[in-house]
Amino acid sequence: MVTFQASIICCALLSALHASTALTISPIQRRISHQKSSQHYGGIKSTTALRNDLKDEIERKAQLKAYEKRAQGGGTGEVAAGAILGGLLGGPFGALFGMQIGSQIGAAQTVNKARMEEMERKGVTPAMLEQATEIGQILEGAIEGLRATQESVDTSQRLAKALDKQSDSVYERAKAAMQSGDEDVARKLLLERETIKEKLLKTLKGLSEEKKRLTAMESNVEALETRALEIESLLRRSVGAASVKDASDMNMGLSLEQEDPLLRKFKDLGM
């Protein structure tokens, strides 16, 4: 009776398996398949590229501004702090160490200040970059997990098909043995087939659970991708607005510089 019920369950699960493989592949699964060949994910690549471009440009300009400021004699307070530290240590080594520390502190603070100024000019806050970094890392991890689960589902499906094919083959051999009058061989083959069917049933149950996890992970990735696109949109709007403001300020400055001094004088006199 138990064997008969197991056979019914196997048949039902196999039907579901064959039906599921015939269904249209979901958009997320198509993206995973595409990722296997192209080794990138659109949402991650877009947001990460924008974030990295902003960070690189901000860092480059911050380093340049810091260098210019220090060349003009900035950072005297930090040098003094280093000298005090060197005095506390005492001796020529202490003085040398204090000068080095003071110089390093000054350089770090100058670069950090220039970095913050450049970020402000770009219309980008540290929180924005932190959010972009965090969502990128989370989304990338979710994609990796989704890909691993999809590969596990594919492997389980191949195993189930192989076991099903093996079960049919053993059954045909058992029938042939019965027809030739070799009942002992037929009995052994039927017992072997029952063992295969138990493995198949276990595989199909595991496959069903994996598909449920895959569906949940797909929904999670879609939500994370939407959030990543929202953050990317926010960054682009902020940078765009800051660029428009810079262009407007520059045009205003140019118009003031190009105004004729004599004409400005007449305007001031009300003429």
Q: What are the salient characteristics of this protein?
A:
271 residues; mainly alpha; 8 helices; 91% helix; rod-shaped; disordered N terminus
- How far from one another are the termini? 111 Å
Quaternary state reads single chain
The biggest sheet, with number of strands, parallel, antiparallel or mixed sense and barrel status, is:
none
Query: Structural class, from helix and strand content?
Result: mainly alpha
**Share in β-strands:** under 5%
Number of strands: 0
Estimate the mean pLDDT confidence.
68
N-to-C series of helices and strands: HHHHHHHH
Question: What does this entry look like structurally?
Answer:
Mean pLDDT is 68; it is low at 1-6, 12-43 and 74-106. This protein is mostly helical and 271 residues long. It is rod-shaped. The longest helix is centred in the last third of the chain and has 76 residues, at 183-258. It has two domains: 1-18 and 44-52 and 125-241; 73-122. Helix 3 (42-71) crosses helix 5, helix 3 packs parallel to helix 7 and helix 4 runs antiparallel to helix 5 (91-122). The protein contains eight helices and no strands.
Short overview:
By secondary structure, this protein is an all-alpha fold. The chain is 91% helix and 0% strand. Residues 1-22 form the signal peptide.
